[in-house]
Prior knowledge:
The protein is α+β, with helices and mostly antiparallel strands. The chain has four domains: about 5-150, 3-Layer(aba) Sandwich (Rossmann fold), CATH 3.40.50; about 155-275, Hect, E3 ligase catalytic domain fold (Alpha-Beta Complex), CATH 3.90.1750.20; about 350-445; about 465-620, no CATH class. The chain has 19 helices and 25 strands. Strand 1 (about 5-10), helix 1 and strand 2 (about 40-45) form a beta-alpha-beta unit. Helix 6 (about 190-200) crosses helix 9 (about 255-270) and helix 12 packs antiparallel against helix 13. The radius of gyration is 38 Å and the shape is elongated.
Amino acid sequence: MAQRCAIYIRVSSDIQDYERQVSDLKSFVKDNNFIFEDKNLYEDKLSGFKDEREREGLAKLLKEVIASNIKIVLVWEMSRLARKPIILLELTDFFQNNSINVYFYIQRFWLLDETGKVSPQAGLSISVFGWLTEYEARLTKERFISAKTNNVKHGKYNGGKIPFGYTLDNENRFVVNDKIIESLDKSEADIVREVFDLYEDGLTCSKISRICRSKKYPKIVCNTHTLARVLRNTQYIGYKIVKLGIRPTPPLISKAQFNLVQELVESNKTKADKGKKHIFLLRGKLKCAVCGEYYVGKQTDDAYICPKNSGSNKTNKGTSCRGSNISISTLDGITWELVKENLINMPDTEVEGFFISSTDKIDNLKNQINEFQDLLKGIENRRKRTNIIFQNEGYSVEEYTNEIGKINNEKNECLRSIELYEQDLRYNERILEESNNISNRLQELDSISDRVQIKKVIKTIVREITFHKIGFFKTIVIIEYINNYKEMILYNAVAKKNSNRFKKLNYTFYYFNPDDNQFYALESENDIYFEAKTEYLKKNNIGLNLPDKISAQMFHGICRTSNLTDYDPYEIRIPHPRYDYNKVYSFDEMLLHPDDSKTSTHPYSKITYFKELKRERFNRKR
Length: 622
């Protein structure tokens, strides 16, 4: 009587391999007059690494051969049934216990003999072949992983999605994708740099994604979630941690900028209403004259506030700073007016000179970074020499541990210095980059209304802003530009006469003393003394033998003789005028002082962005 049979096939992705197995096994069925139905063909995907107990086709076969009274199973060859000896033995027990015989087509033998026991040939073959196939699979897997690990080590592609901003070269290595997208006139790499710049400027992922959508950029930067992943991707600074190690890649942005963006990302996690974050024009520029913290904007009050003088500030509880609040509308308006006036009225030659300090500083910073990188190489060479000495028993364990500890400390200090210099370099490079854009758009400054663009211009021109208040409304603002030039601004927030006007003083000829709220007229820079013993000197280890107070002229001379020509006394000193013969003015007297070559009165327009938002919210509630 003809017996019913089933066919089990374990196939690879090769379609010819599948068809050959099916054809040969069906021919064997026909030659032996077995009964076979297509529904009794069971198959699994071939894998040398997947757990063999997870095969759906085999599980279905084992279940249905009993229910369908199938007594014969045909298999292409032994490794297709199982690769591990333990699995082969388990299957052998199953088939023997259920009186089901298995024929291995390639090996040309049956599993069971005529008595229903495992044949001697099958038993020996299962033991030997099972061990060999398991060894082969393990060896193949190790070779596969080794090849992939080597690819990771050399920055090669191992499969998966290629990160936005990169492409592959002829050797499958990651390279920066600078190919211009015709419809955008920008490359993927340009877009990555742009979104990092925008986030550094204070925009949220929501705002950046809207800008990207308006420019019809690729989808990855038009969605807030995928954009956030872009901003956190370490691949853009030269490495990616994957399962098989650390894969090096060409950096797209500086480490300093990436670290700054990560700090902003972390700080923004705790802030509510992330999608509606507003642009504060003086963020990162306005510094408290009392505690030195940068002011933060509070849009509901239209005010810049010191974070250490805010009872509601969660990160600075228990702090108490006397730094006053200041109107956003007023200070933004005055600052923007001054920036426009300085740039528009400046001759072309002076505009270029305005940014020359950034160019010089960039070159200097690059040299400093190169010096520290050379120092790092020297430190690594010391480590190698120390290891060799220790291996040759030239150091005791304690001596070796101490020496390696010193080397690690030096390396960490060196890396921290490089990171700080890179942050400074990135700042100056962005200033220079934006200055080129500004130089070409001087005549358009008056027409700029977009807050992002206004902030970029201010950030490029202004280094720092501080202010003092006399009472609640009399305000003295000191603006320092990137070329070290300073201006002093006076205005009275409630003055009816000359409202929306401010008085500008030449900082070289006037000094405001916050201790007595008086203005001192200076005939020259020699009228200013400098405190020699400051935190700056201690921090930078400048060992100058100076008196307690020293004039600017004398300080310049000592700096030159001490080869400290890079230090500008106006940057590192706290100036105090000589009080013995200077003319002294009160705030009101200075505000009403006739305009001359050292003072001038100017109109300005408030930038009432936050007041208008508040008015809109009020009207909606009504």
